[in-house]
Amino acid sequence: MSNRKWNIGIAILFIIFASLLLSFLLSTIRIRELLQPILSDETSQEAARHVILIAQELENPYWRSIEQGAREASAKYGMQLEYAGPLRINPDEQIKLLEKAIAAKADAVLVQGINDPQYVDLIDQAVSQGIAIITVDTDEPDSRRLSYVGTDNLDAGKVMGGLVAKAAGKRGSVAVLIGNEQAPNQQLRLKGLRTVIGQYPELSLVDVRSSNISRLQAAGAAEELLIQYPHIDFMVGLSALDGIGIAEAAERIQRSGIKIFAFDALEETLTHIRSGKINSTIVQQPYDMGYEAVSQLNNHFRGETLPGRHFTKINILDQHTLINETGETSP
Q1: Does domain 48-145+286-312 have CATH number 2.30.110.10?
Q2: In the CATH hierarchy, which fold is given to the domain comprising 153-284?
């Protein structure tokens, strides 16, 4: 009898233990289900690639447009984008920011080429440490960067040369402002322009001056050119502020009849095109540069081999184009 009671007692204890164990397991499963979204988010954040975009100038609208494209592509591909840059154009600060990005062990860095040996060494150092480097806007072709994403500046210069030659009827005198004599993208544009102008014996390039990427200096250099060469018929600006500076100089010294060709689509440039002060401008696609650069990074992280160069498109805006695009009436 006592054995029977003992067996019944053991059975009851087993049932109680089994019930408690089952309840514990069910609770554990429920807790895991509740925590899973949080754990997944943390895992996703840990796995997100850290990408740093180093601008030439932090608040420059052109670079903000590059940032916008890069940020939208980063969101699409699950990357974390950090945007940095000097407050004013300063290559030394760009070098320091690249050093910081390497020290922070970023997964990738998007940089503008600045044609500096120390910068090239840093890019090579980053790549050797497994940090993916893509150049945007301006290339650093002698470095180990994975790819360049931006305008084909040699071709853009040739397009500019074609615009001038057509407007000139293949004869006349041309003066040029260049933003920065050391910048590879500016030199490529100038080379392309010279290539086309050199095809026409009666179309001559009389002088090239630097504006140092300054509207004030662009206006000053343009005024000097117009006074020194009173026979100039055409003036070309190869960086964003040059065309505006040329228009300002021509108005200041009351030189009419000068045909001005600009680069990029600053609002004042477009205003001058509408009024006829600037003939036309070549427009780059900074948003596309940022978006495509991050897209190329995504391809790289998936194990794909990147092209050495990925060119973004350019457009030509003139008075006729602006009227057709906006429905404006001609002034």
Answers
A1: no
A2: Rossmann fold (3.40.50)
